[in-house]
């Protein structure tokens, strides 16, 4: 059976707490939408779409020696994507190592018949889905960047559990 897979950076507990605080600040400021639970916070590097068991085995073999750089990112700007109603915390500046890693994983997917990513990589962590438009007075939120450091990359599976979508780590590459 095929699985819905993606590569992501996990979010450390300290960053999760800062993101939860920001999420409640945004909710109080009038953003209505589904709040993403902290356990689902992640930064997508490459979305692979529906992947069969044999495609997954081949992917894991190809990427067995994936090198994980030190990743350090300042999340300092809000994004709003109207169609899915996504409110996300993103980065004005994409560190070179992070951009290269995302490109490598996206190209690998494309070259092997998995989901092609057609848009430029914009690192972000989704905080709300199905949200109404951002209010203009949120232009200066967050007041302080949330600094994210990561030493690992995870291959994640998205499953529909009884309480909604859940993400589980299938494989972790450590620096
Ligand atoms: P997100 O990164 O903007 O939150 C698992 O579904 C993850 O893959 C989610 O984090 C989601 O968005 C991202 N994702 C889902 N569908 C996608 C698509 N068609 N293209 C790119 N990323 C997608």
TrEMBL record:
Highest taxon of the lineage: Bacteria
Record's keyword terms, sorted: Hydrolase
InterPro entries: Cyclic_Pdiesterase (IPR009097), Phosphoesterase_HXTX (IPR014051), RNA_CPDase (IPR004175)
UniProt keyword ATP-binding, yes or no: no
Reaction equations catalysed: a 3'-end 2',3'-cyclophospho-ribonucleotide-RNA + H2O = a 3'-end 2'-phospho-ribonucleotide-RNA + H(+)
UniProt motif HXTX 2: location: 124-127
Gene3D superfamilies, A to Z: Cyclic phosphodiesterase (3.90.1140.10)
Phosphoesterase HXTX domain: residues covered: 17-86
Motif HXTX 1 per record, residues: 42-45
Alphabetical list of Pfam families matching this protein: LigT_PEase
EC identifiers of the protein: 3.1.4.58
Annotated catalytic residues: 42, 124
Protein's job: Hydrolyzes RNA 2',3'-cyclic phosphodiester to an RNA 2'-phosphomonoester.
Similarity field: Belongs to the 2H phosphoesterase superfamily. ThpR family.
HAMAP family for the chain: RNA_CPDase
Name the UniProt record assigns to this protein: RNA 2',3'-cyclic phosphodiesterase
